[in-house]
Write a structure and sequence with these properties.
The protein has 73 residues and is mainly α. Helix content is 79%, strand content 5%. A hairpin with a 5-residue loop joins strand 1 and strand 2. The radius of gyration is 23 Å and the shape is elongated.
């Protein structure tokens, strides 16, 4: 049986059962809207992570510059 490692050992049959339950619970028309919202959330999270990373990089550059200025004096 094929297992997907990124899902933690769930097999194909378990994934199909979960997909069927989701389809029955939300309906075929609502699933695309849910996926669109999920995509927006992931995109927003990635943008936030980029902002944090650029902020940290800027702070590192400022610290390096301050150290270089101290060494010159």
């Amino acid at each position: 049986m094929t297992t997907l490692n990124f899902i933690g050992g769930l097999g194909l049959s378990e994934i199909l059962v979960i997909a069927l339950v989701v389809l029955l619970f939300f309906g075929g028309k609502k699933i695309p809207e849910l996926m669109k919202g999920l995509g927006k959330g992931v995109r927003s999270f990635k943008d936030g992570m980029k902002e944090v990373q650029s902020g940290l990089d800027d702070e590192d550059k400022e610290d390096v510059k301050k150290e270089a200025d101290k060494d010159k004096k």
